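Entry type: protein chain
Record version: 2
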Amino acid sequence: MTGGHGLFIGPPVNGWIIVTGSGLPNPGSDADECFRFLTELSRKLGHVQFFQAERVLHHHAWARVENGAVKRAYAWAGETVWNQGSKTADEEELSMKCFGYGEHPSAASWAAAEWTATNVAKVPLLAARWSLDPARIDGSLRKHVAGESPRPD
């Protein structure tokens, strides 16, 4: 099923509904817009999670929102643009690095590139701990999430 405004809304998978597409807000462009979108959606649906892993620029984000309240959110877009709530046990166990506002990694650019790339690679692992492992979504849904729309027979 497709939604308007560049969104794909998939069928439920183990109780979760996956929404993907260019219509989702990008916290790197506007963290406030992402916050408003997720909190409003959560007021309607209850528990909402958000994950972003951009492999080229190493931008990444994750959030858990329950009943309109952000429990945990972190977003990096060349700097920390959203850091709310305490780091979760899952983030700690995965050794994900999160910086405070205005705090920057080591001056050595290779070190920053290394940890941001590592965080990007760990976003699916965090998603798996919080809800669903994107690598284990069945093939038919993966086709749709990748952008192929179902064709009527």
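Comment: The first helix runs from residue 31 to 45.
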